[in-house]
Amino acid sequence: MPIYKYLNESRIQSLENATLRATQASAVNDPFELKPFFRTIFTAERLHRTLALENLEGKLVDVVYAKLPTPLRNKLSENDVAILLQRKEIRQGLEETSQAFEAEASNLLPDWSTRFRNVLFETLECNVGIVSFTNDPLSTLMWAHYAGDHKGFVIEFDETHPFFDRRRTPEDEFFHLRPVNYRLPACKYESLEDLDGVALLCTKQACWDYEQESRILIPLDNTGASSPDLVHLITFPRDCVRSVILGHRASATLENDIRQVLSHAPEYTHVNLHRASIDLSNGSIVISAVQIR
Length: 293
Description:
Distance between the termini: 27 Å
Number of strands: 15
Strand order of the largest sheet: 1-6-13-14-15
Helix content: 25-40%
Number of helices: 9
């Protein structure tokens, strides 16, 4: 199945140099990009389970034993410490301490959640690049928004090419093509635990569903990446290009320039050139082949 990249007429170097921009979230036109809303880091129920004394006992024994002075630690085993911690007066003190800490943590949780949310979003904005594609080369809106009001062009790629699946492990969130999931703005997540890789990295509001987006995520070198003006480029193999489609308002100059690029690069000898036009009888865009040579 082919996928497509809409480009402005000034972006012919993308075709010539075989490069695409990996755009950080702070530089894209969706202000909600990589910012799924979750109410809290974790729920009160999860906080209680985490801090419940019965769930801490194993770790508590290790911590207490490690803190004992060496002479005393040489005389006691970890099992001895575990038995001591079961004494009624000690256990009561631990329970009270655990409950007091849970109460204090509950009070601080909203502030912690806000701070963590901001840090997470800032980290994603600076360190993750998005390379966007679409499944639809006939979208009037896409031609208008991303191809300079139909004056630009579209590159058609072969989705089955190995370039589009270079994940390093089965769980890798990067280096492979994945579809975007579209959700209503009212769909919010209760806690950070509810977010997986798709929810965090590949979800947009439903108003963007006309884009039919698929994307590749790239980890960025964070040196200076906080600036939205910093351009990060990735190189694609030219043999994964199948065709180039000129917009129906594309100039003769752009057509000639693209012809030159396709003619002079041996790796592009297989690439077809097409031009989009508008069909007034049914209000649609149609694509026709153009002779390159």
